[in-house]
Amino acid sequence: MPAPTLASDTRTAILDAAAGLFARQGLDSTTIKEIGRAAGVNPALLYYYFADKAALYEAVLERLMTRFPDRLAEVAVREAPVRDAIAAVVHMQAEVFLSEPLLPRLMARELADHEARRAAPVIRSHAHRLLSALTNLISRGQQRGEFRSEVSPELAAVSCLAQLNWFFIAGPALELILNREGVTREPDAVHRFAQHVVEFTLAGLERR
Amino acid sequence: MPAPTLASDTRTAILDAAAGLFARQGLDSTTIKEIGRAAGVNPALLYYYFADKAALYEAVLERLMTRFPDRLAEVAVREAPVRDAIAAVVHMQAEVFLSEPLLPRLMARELADHEARRAAPVIRSHAHRLLSALTNLISRGQQRGEFRSEVSPELAAVSCLAQLNWFFIAGPALELILNREGVTREPDAVHRFAQHVVEFTLAGLERR
DNA sequence: GTCTATAGCGGGATAGAC
DNA sequence: GTCTATCCCGCTATAGAC
Predict the structure, then answer these.
(1) Could you say which residues 9-38 of protein chain B have a Cβ atom less than 7 A away from any atom in strand C?
(2) Distance (Å) from CA A36 to C1' C4?
(3) Whole-Å CA distances, B201 to A163, A181, B92, B122, B206
(4) What pLDDT digit, counting tens, does each position of B139-184 carry?
(5) Burial, A22: exposed, middle or buried (Cβ in 10 Å; 0-12, 13-18, 19+)?
């Protein structure tokens, strides 16, 4: 891994190209030559910057997940009123997926592959932090008497996260089905859905 | 496609083995020889029963989707009170995924691959019917004054379906994260989540 | 750091015996 | 219907010139 000189945006070019191809086609369906072509770089160069194809794949995942703001989980703890914290988490999630459109596809693939056994630890640990932050948040809401106590905080957290996750994974198909070009990519439409998720989730949680 | 003689459970064996491998690894990462091994059948036989690998893949999808009860969408129309209809749809969805555990993974992969461009038409049309049935259902609930009218019926339908879909797609990972072996496969645990989804969704929809 | 050439392997698919 | 043998191709990865 060479120093980040100017010349080594070759490395970046490879990473960028690979991210797109891996997200769209998966690891095995993507060839070295394809990556080289997409990056505008000699395919053999890949082996100068990375040990092999698998290492490149790991690097791609790592890089995307690192950009993935840790703030997501932090936000869940920081915001004062519980309902604001939940809203913040959902909108932050939308923000992340908007700025990193490849992430949901890559994650979906990782989840589906190999019983998630090889699902990058980085994904697993992130998901775990996020899920337990949300679970705690909901518990707190219950203790304060704001939320109904019959709901399982853990299941409710899954319900909350599932909505946006699925929205983005099924994105391309949803656009066809709903017959609305861009609903899962245009910031306005996405935030409208995120806002819906917030309201829907809070309505599902709050005392009547 | 030979007559369904006794001898042709060879064909079935191939389909079964292929379904598992495709769901877990995808089309390209699964080799002919692997399928043969898993099916306990000579790999070359694959070409006696199917034109090529792609044709086998289509056959696998077709077969799984056909087992997928059309009743799912019908149920949405048939049940009398709106809330019962929603409950019926969600539990039916759980039932289908339980009896066809490969389906969600296969669907997730189809969605992630190739911008869903080649997402089997059969998936698309099914999803469309289900989604619009649910949307109509929710609209009806609003007209009857049972549901809040600020909610977009279409978005709410997405929220409702997303929960179980995501639950099953992320299943293997969720089991690791929640540290609960089997939550996404054992009928009891699954129906408990389905029941949660029903209550959560109705709470999100109903007037306070 | 970048490029060419190529080794070497494993994949899909077919021919043809049984 | 099943099996063996094999062709051919394209892929990953490397060696080595520049």
Answers:
(1) 30-33
(2) 15
(3) 11, 27, 15, 27, 9
(4) 999 999 999 999 999 999 999 999 999 999 988 888 888 889 999 9
(5) buried
Q: Which residues of A touch B114 (CB under 8 A)?
A: 24-25
Q: Give the integer Cα–Cα distance in Å for A157 and A165.
A: 12
Percentage of chain A lying above the pLDDT 90 cut: 67
* Radius of gyration of chain A, Cα coordinates, nearest whole angstrom: 19
Q: Tell me how crowded residue A6 is: count the other CB atoms within 10 A of its CB.
A: 5
Written as one letter, the residue type at B98 is L
Q: What is the pTM of this model?
A: 0.91
Bridge partners, residue B206, by sequence: B147
Q: Which residues pair with A147 in a beta bridge?
A: A206
For A149, the 3-state DSSP assignment is coil
The whole-number Å distance from B48's CA to C16's C1' is: 14
Distance CA A194, CA B22 (A): 33
Q: Give the pLDDT confidence of B89-123 residue by residue, as tens digits.
A: 999 999 999 999 998 888 888 888 867 766 667 77
